[in-house]
Amino acid sequence: MRRVLGRGERERVIKKYMDEMGQQWKGSGMAVDYSMGLSISEDPVERERTDVELAAWLWRNLFDSRGLGGPPLPPPEGEGPMSGRVKELELPRQLMEVVCFMRREMTRLDGVSDGDVLSGNIGEWGAAGMQEEQVQQMQEEQVQL
User: What digits encode the pLDDT tens for the residues 56-104?
Assistant: First the structure.
């Protein structure tokens, strides 16, 4: 945060920004948890709202609330002035694709065993951020339990 605001900024201001960012992070996590919780609800109306809530979270956080009536996205180099508005028209399709991706990945991860998660083997690339020796040590510790 100090790099963004500069060396001369007071510590109180930086602490305030850090607190706000922490609250936004927690709120974002709660919103995802809420939308995922709707998917296991007994009420069919709530289950139907799951993808809508997830898309709303994605739009706010991943897509930065684009298309909210503000200025259009800047056109890429060599494209006309209307290309920003055209890109905004693609947002619903893009949101749907990301929601479908998240659903697919959550279903895949639901099928991964706890042991594989603990050892970091949750994808096709093997252990995430671990050396092979660390993975073997964790697996041996699990066997002992």
Answer: 888 888 777 666 655 555 666 666 555 555 566 778 888 889 889 988 8
| Runs of H (alpha helix) within the chain | 2-5, 11-38, 44-48, 50-61, 83-89, 91-110, 114-119, 132-144
Q: Which domain holds residue 30?
A: 2-73+83-113
Residue 102 lies in a domain: yes
Asked if residue 93 is part of any domain, the answer here is yes
- Measured CA to CA, the distance from residue 67 to residue 95 in angstroms comes to 13
Q: What number is the average pLDDT over the span 23-34? A: 86
One-letter amino acid for residue 80 of the chain: G
In a domain, 109, yes or no: yes
CB atoms under 10 Å from CB of 93, counted, come to 9
Distance of alpha carbon 122 from the chain centroid: 17
What's the whole-model pTM score?
A: 0.58
User: Is 35 a domain residue?
Assistant: yes
Judged on CB neighbours under 10 Å (0-12, 13-18, 19+), 39 is middle
